[in-house]
Amino acid sequence: QVQLVESGGGLVQAGGSLRLSCAASGSIVSIVTMGWYRQAPGKQRELVATMSSSDSTKYADSVKGRFTISRDNARKTVNLQMNSLEPEDTAVYYCNIYGQAMGIIRFYNYWGQGTQVTVSS
Fold it and tell me: What confidence score (pLDDT) does residue 17 get?
């Protein structure tokens, strides 16, 4: 089994910063990408930022220049530094790993339980 545990969400004023962290544990043996998605009320879940095993990054246009993703392959952690936060960034943020668990041939998406980020104006 694969578990993802997120931390770092909370309430912040517009212009402020937050840092999200996610640690993977369990039987995952190969990670292709690690990243963050978010879902605001009444909206679909959307990609925020991902990083591949070769350190290639992808960001949503709305967060480019404000958010930075980083990962530690050895510790199976991924972080999201969020600066210059805007009320539009308010959402539940989900950690994601696309990888392979021990004893399972296929690769799957694994998700954390989500952490709330609220940005007040």
Answer: 98
